[in-house]
Amino acid sequence: MPVTSSKARRAESRDQAPGPVPQRTRLWLDFVNTDTASQPPGGDLLRDFEALLTWLQSQDVVDEERAGGIRRRAVLQPAAAAATLVDARRVRAALRALAERGQQVERVRDDALIEINRVLGRSAGTRRLDPMPGGGFTRIFVPTGDAFAGLMIPIVESAADTLIDKELGRVRRCADPRCHRVFLDGTKNGLRRWCDMGTCGNRAKAARHRARTQGSA
Ligand SMILES: [Zn+2]
Q1: pTM of the model
Q2: Does domain 4-216 have CATH number 1.10.3300.10?
């Protein structure tokens, strides 16, 4: 998983221009939020293999060089690319279930574990420690053999980290019933309810305000 350079560059530029503290997020939850439930009607972000690859690139999971190689292979083997997309959606569905009900339902957790281990188990590769520009080190997973097979590794590893770190209890679905986005509640008190205060949180605030003013009228 060549995640080094662009992410490190971004971290560097963030250091130079301190902005608002980014909300804690997790790759696997962002991946779940690409699905039709989270997007406007009919709007699966992973509508085709190219969209999947572009999304992985946007998350620094796949670098440009590797993406170029994968694109060339996708042209030569469209059926394998299509199967990879189907598989990615399958992983995503299992991870949505894990995010929404994994904490409460053991069976859901077990099913997600099977999916995670299915992905981890079939991908061969090596690991490498790389220095990052600006200092520090990062561990990289370098898939060998089937280039398509390794694509889901960083996603499921991110979900695995959440389970290992006992963070699943902090994964929530947005309190707005129309919104299906999932997020990690990184607040100290663990009372965050909305995926985003700017959108869903604001809507709820406005609705409460309306209810109050109508009630007192
Ligand atoms: Zn929301």
Answers
A1: 0.80
A2: yes
